[in-house]
Amino acid sequence: MAAQHGAPPSARSPRFGVNYTPSNGWFHHWLDFDLDAVRADLDSVAALGFDHVRVFPLWPVFQPNRTLIRPRAVEQLAALTDAAGERGLDVNVDGLQGHLSSFDFLPAWTTTWHRRNLFTDPDVVSGQAEYLRTLAAALADRPNFLGMTVGNEINQFSGHPHPDPDRVTPEQAGDWLRRMLDACERGAPGRLHLHAEYDAAWYLDDHPFTPAHSARIGAVTAVHSWVFNGTAQRYGTRSTATAQHAAYLVELAKAWAREPRRPVWLQEVGAPAPHVPAEYAAEFATATIDAVLDCPEVWGVTWWCSHDVDRRLADFPELEYSLGLLTQDRRVKPAGRAVAEAVRRWRTETPAPRPRTTALVVDVGPGDQAPARSVCAPGGAVFEAFMRLTAQGARPTTVLAEHATDADHLAARGITEVVTPHDVH
């Protein structure tokens, strides 16, 4: 399938893919790159009917010195991209790794004796920009290269609960994001370049990466849905809230968008045990995907992740080992079969989603910094009202309080009814 070069898809054509976790060595495979093993992994991904993968070069492996971006590593990324293309898979590349599965991967030139702020130090920012530009440029002529994601949840470095955060203001975070995306665009003009944060951006009052950053900067809005964030613990594994969490984030993101039809990419979602027990993972996957595909303007769904983590690798949180749709030896798990079936049904049987005409008011305080955004988090008034409406059979979206009486804004989004959390019982 050819890359879409940043053009928003029609409502009938969301993309379906996986976050590629190599079966051989996890992301440490870049240290002992084995193209044959990668090809075998990608064969097992393509066999499930997916059309794209999101891949993760490890930043310190690719750029061990600020002025050294290893040509051999870049060649290996290109080889992986070509192998994916041979199997009908498009590729999105996350640049700054950054953070993966509880581990931080930062190059030595940003830590200890060279400790510098990742978001504001001029030399670090210049080095990051050149790195992203280089990766994008290396893939710019590949027809199956979708584009760059700046990094994987790199906002986790910017504040609590990180043990050694790189403090940044919301204004500085926005400036940093724009500079990184400009570098991606210089390397590969016209591709789908974006950034992606974990849900502190939507749920944590004082977090410097804001909902407005996510919904207004970059080609699409990315959301990452993880029900171990308190959703499954508070509401239960089989609750409406757990099944609808990803769909909620998709619709919540639309409140901050300036373009009425801005696409939203569910870039990460998975079934983490024990919050989602193994015997329920397939049911959870089906319920989650069905809920998300009832949301208009979904760019795509990218499951986390392709293959389980090898248990010979130490010190991962327990839930990280079993998130794959396939085992480490590439056997399809029940959740893998469920996701593949959900994709098949969407492509062959499921009608396009109708517009969501009821909007729930999101009042998070004045300005773009959303100082009271915790009302959107699990347990918050907006979250609970959204889930009550959904359980009652409604199909809500969201609207910022400042737009709740703006007739032009509501009309552009197809909203015909506005309710506040206090209206929902």
Which terms summarize this structure?
TIM Barrel; three-stranded parallel β-sheet; disordered N terminus; single chain; 425 residues; eight-stranded parallel β-sheet; 2 domains; alpha/beta; globular
Task: Please describe the topology of this protein.
Blueprint: E1 15-19, H1 35-46, E2 52-55, H2 59-62, H3 71-86, E3 90-96, E4 99-100, E5 103-104, H4 122-139, E6 145-152, H5 170-187, E7 194-196, H6 200-203, H7 211-216, E8 221-225, H8 231-235, H9 240-253, E9 264-269, H10 281-292, E10 298-303, H11 334-348, E11 358-362, H12 381-391, E12 396-400, H13 407-413, E13 417-419
Parallel strand pairs: 1-2, 1-10, 2-3, 3-6, 6-7, 8-9, 9-10, 11-12, 11-13
Antiparallel strand pairs: 4-5
Helix pairs in contact: 1-3, 3-4, 4-5, 9-10, 9-12, 10-11
